[in-house]
Design goal:
By secondary structure, this protein is an alpha+beta fold. The chain has four helices and three strands; from the N terminus they run E-E-H-H-E-H-H. Strand 1 (about 15-20) and strand 2 form a beta hairpin. The longest helix has 18 residues, at about 65-85. It is globular.
């Protein structure tokens, strides 16, 4: 049966999850609604992720200051707002709430980014 290109059109948003490490509980799935990005937008996002990583690169000799850590979490939250449109929490999905979530869940940013790329590509994590 013949298909048109339009039949493969992506939806603007799609459901996915991030396995956020929670102390004492292990990875917990966080339901998210991700935003679709085309190839050009994905390249721009990749550049933003790299720039963010480079901007806040810490070493044993030069750890981030408290102010830099605060700024990093805010920048991470702003980047998450570009790839996620909603979360399953009843709390408002906002830069402020995401930033606070990153304060108590240190590895949440990486988990959300990983969840985005897996959901965007249709990759399966475990059977």
């Amino acid at each position: 049966m013949a298909k048109s290109l339009a039949s493969f059109a992506p939806t603007p948003t799609f459901k996915g999850a991030a396995d956020v490490p929670v102390a004492g509980k292990g990875p917990q799935p966080l339901g998210l609604t991700f935003r679709f990005h085309d190839t050009e937008a994905m390249k721009a996002l990749s550049a933003e992720f790299t720039a963010l990583q480079d901007k806040y690169k810490a070493t044993a000799e030069a750890p981030l200051s408290d102010e830099q850590e605060k700024d990093m979490r805010t920048d991470q939250a702003k980047l998450v707002m570009k790839i996620v449109s909603a979360w399953e929490f009843t709390d408002e999905f906002s830069v402020e709430n995401i930033t606070q979530f990153f304060v108590t869940h240190a590895f949440a940013f990486g988990a959300i980014v990983t969840g985005f790329f897996q959901a965007h590509s249709g990759a399966k994590t475990k059977n």
